[in-house]
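Moderator note: this is an archived Q&A kept for reference. The question asked for a predicted structure of one protein chain; the sequence and the answer are reproduced below.
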Amino acid sequence: MPASTPAGLVSSVLTVTAVTLLIYPLKLVFDTGALDGLYIPVILFLAAKWHVAMGLLGSTVGALEFSYFHLEPVHHFSGLVSEALAFAAVVAGALYVHVASVRAVG
């Protein structure tokens, strides 16, 4: 049984924001474009632990935060266009994990 919706909302925002903050020091060592994959385990966890809506919320917040804080030009949402395919892949993964976790539970 999923945890409460308020806990899912808080977890979605906090875990995705934690990944966004983690990317700042990693940008010094790795290419920024390769770091968007760090959101995937968090999104899949949210979709498995809570309802798929939390995974979708997390993926949306992650795409917005990554575009705004890490993609050139920084502090603009123009990077969303280049991240659209990755965003769609994460959403598909969240849907798959949710369906798989529902089937596993019964």
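Archived answer notes: The longest helix spans residues 5-26.
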